[in-house]
Amino acid sequence: MRVLGIAGSLRAGSFNRSLLRAAQELAPPGMEIEACDISAIPLYNGDVEAQGDPPPVAAFKVAIREADALLIATPEYNYGVPGVLKNAVDWASRPPGKSVLNGKPAGIMGASMGTVGTARAQLQLRQAFVFTQTLAMLQPEALVTKAHEKFDADGRLTDEGTRSFVGKFLVAFAAWVQRLGG
Ligand SMILES: Cc1cc2nc3c(=O)[nH]c(=O)nc-3n(C[C@H](O)[C@H](O)[C@H](O)COP(=O)(O)O)c2cc1C
């Protein structure tokens, strides 16, 4: 099972990038998570799109198309999805109705320093996925709260409870992807 990992933060020390790395480490047998870099994706512009997808966008779409599923680790910015991630989703959502996101199984995780662990951003992402017909796993939810207490200075997930939960989340995610034929 080939999973494309997408972190919604460009920060080198990002907790969400670290969470994705932990998922790579804790993935169940048979699941391979390849992290993709969305930093080169330009801001969506319909005029640019009309001339053809810029290379980073084209590469992003190919990576999504070739993956069996997506695993997204989103931060929460002002109660919502960070612009860099929403922008990448917006590009990938084109053309509407038959985009690479259509019918693609997805798992959503998130880490924040607060006490709700990106719950509001995750709900907003799910809302976008209704229109793109992206099949986001419903439960369990992966809300990593107080992230600064759970990762060490090198970005390794050290909290044993969270490591155990991420492992279980990924087993459920594998079952979700298989159920959808992936
Ligand atoms: C513009 C901005 C808005 C933020 N808004 C929220 C928020 O609504 N809820 C929250 O829990 N944390 C919020 N934070 C704090 C982030 O959760 C924190 O910076 C987190 O480390 C970002 O994820 P990252 O480590 O993957 O970059 C915000 C941070 C920024 C920069």
Features:
6-stranded parallel β-sheet, binds flavin mononucleotide, 15% strand, 182 residues, alpha/beta
Task: Write structural notes for this entry.
With 182 residues, this protein is α/β, with parallel strands linked by helices. The chain is 40% helix and 15% strand. It has helices spanning 15-26, 46-50, 55-66, 83-92, 119-132, 160-179; strands spanning 2-7, 32-36, 69-73, 105-111, 135-136, 142-144. It has six helices and six strands. It starts with a strand and ends with a helix.
Mean pLDDT: 98
Major sheet: 6 strands, parallel
- Number of DSSP helical runs: 6
Give the ordered list of helices and strands.
Answer: EHEHHEHEHEEH
- Name the hetero compounds present: flavin mononucleotide
Give the amount of beta strand, in percent.
Answer: 15-25%
Class computed from helices, strands and strand pairing: alpha/beta
Shape, please? globular
Taking the alpha carbons of the first and last residues, their distance comes to 7 Å
Spans of 5+ residues with little confidence (pLDDT < 50)? none
Number of strands: 6
Report helical residue fraction: 40-55%
What is the alpha-carbon Rg in Å? Answer: 15 Å
Quick summary of this structure?
It is built from six helices and six strands. The chain is of the alpha/beta class. Flavin mononucleotide binds at residues 9, 11, 14-16, 75-79, 112-114.
